[in-house]
Amino acid sequence: MDGADDWPEEGDLLVCTVKDVRENGAYLNLDTYEGRRGFVFIGEVAAGWVKNIRSHLRVGQRVVAKVIQIKKDRQRVELSIKSVSEERKRDTLQAWKNKKRAEQIMRVAAERVGWGEDKSAALCDEMEEIFGTLYGALEECTISDTALADAGFSGDDWMTVVTELAVENIVPPFVEIRGEFDIQVWGPEGVNAIREALLAAEACALDLEEVTLTCHYDGAPHYRVDIRAPDYQAAESVWEAAQKAVSDSMSSVDGSITAERA
After folding, report:
1. 114 vs 75, 104, 158, 165, CA distance in Å?
2. What is the C-alpha to C-alpha distance for residues 255 and 262, in angstroms, rounded to an integer?
3. Which residues pair with 20 in a beta bridge?
């Protein structure tokens, strides 16, 4: 939560709620700065001439506004709604919703593990510092159940609770799966044949948007395959294609290959 002395900066985009509509403008509550209010002059409500401000704004409406001036002596922030593009409005609203969702998830987690408000707030701040945003931290938990441990956090009980809540409440931006190839070549082709087989596997994702497949050497004869995709169906489909590609590449070589999902 923002402190009592916190103010936004000029140029910031803020999620606001319309508090009062007047003939010459409207007063808005700054949802991300508790207790702060702003004012949007009628000329900053929409592009062009605004004949009736109430045809654009109503009490209780949520809007995204840009900070154009801060008047601390009057405890007010001057705002512009017309300066915010539709794309930036959508992005700002989504980020605000994500923040609220993440905070709610962490409140539930704190209740389940019996934490006080101070301890929960300190942990949230640390997660935000490491992952960029609190929601981003929870997104990482949906992608990998070791995300918190990998980031240096400790305490299995609370990490399990947070990860489970994240998986239940957040749709991940992508998923990751892992496969393993054991490849051996006994003929003269040797490592060249293995390299060609792994390149054939990686080629399965080259023409696919938002899908990546990378092969890694884990010590002969073990090779790790990491696949990132928008959903599990797409990831599994690429894994199946990779297995076939490697098998086809190795078909004329004196050797062996086994594949397994990790």
Report:
1. 38, 15, 10, 15
2. 22
3. 27
The structural domains of the chain, ordered by start, are 13-84 (2.40.50.140), 87-169 (1.10.150), 175-261 (3.30.70.1130)
Q: How far apart (Å, rounded) are the C-alpha atoms in residues 210 and 123?
A: 32
| pLDDT tens digits, 47-97 | 889 989 999 999 999 999 999 999 887 778 999 999 999 999 999 999 999
> CB–CB of 119/94 below 8 Å?
no
pLDDT of residue 83: 95
More confident residue, 145 or 237: 237
* The model scores a pTM over 0.85: no
113 residue type, one letter: V
Greatest Cα-to-Cα distance within the chain, rounded to the nearest angstrom = 86
pLDDT for 4 equals: 52
Q: What is the CA radius of gyration of the chain?
A: 26
The answer to whether the CB of 181 falls within 8 A of the CB of 258 is yes
Sequential DSSP letters for 237-258 = HHHHHHHHHHHHHHTTSSEEEE
**Exposed e or buried b per residue across 25-40, where buried means at least 16 C-beta atoms within 10 angstroms of its C-beta:** bbbbbbebbeebbbbb
Contact residues for 47 (Cβ-Cβ < 8 A; gap 6+): 82
Query: Which pLDDT value is given to residue 3?
Result: 47
